[in-house]
Design brief:
With 146 residues, the protein is mainly α. 58% of the residues lie in helices and 8% in strands.
Length: 146
């Protein structure tokens, strides 16, 4: 089953942090290609650059991480796609239905909406609230959040 890999998962996959080992373990050969929306690519790029700003990684490490992402896109691990406009409509529906109960942030809602609109059945995330929303929306969340 191909899953939607959202930004917290991808940041851990491409830069070293407390969740990196778990992210790598979930990337089994033959499980892709994974969709990579333009929205997710933007958020991932910004998250990596923010890690430089916060002095969590060096500019060289960020360049390497983004280069590795480009290599994986070229190698077919990811299938880049424009973010469908229907994602925003689905996100609005999810916000109205779940945010008051779960406290979900807009960007997290957009990832769940993207997974739903792309017809996926699972989302890989390290974000607890996003995982709660995903489950409430009927998506599996195969990552155990420690």
């Amino acid at each position: 089953m191909t899953a939607y890999l959202e930004t917290s998962f991808l940041v851990s996959l491409y830069t070293l942090d407390a969740n990196s080992a778990s992210a790598v373990a979930h990337m089994r050969p033959g499980t892709g290609p994974f969709p990579l929306t333009s929205f997710c690519e933007l958020e991932l790029t910004n998250a990596i650059e923010l890690r430089v700003f916060r002095r969590e990684i060096t500019a060289a490490q960020a360049k390497l991480a983004l280069g590795d992402l480009g290599t994986d896109v070229a190698g077919g691990v990811f299938h880049p796609i424009p973010t469908p406009t229907s994602v925003y409509e689905e996100a609005l529906r999810l916000a109205r239905r779940h945010t008051a109960l779960l406290g979900t942030r807009t960007l997290d809602i957009l990832h769940v909406a993207a997974a739903l609109k792309l017809g996926l059945r699972a989302i890989c995330t390290f974000d607890r609230r996003q995982a709660q929303l995903a489950r409430a929306a009927g998506l599996a969340t195969p990552i155990r959040i420690g």
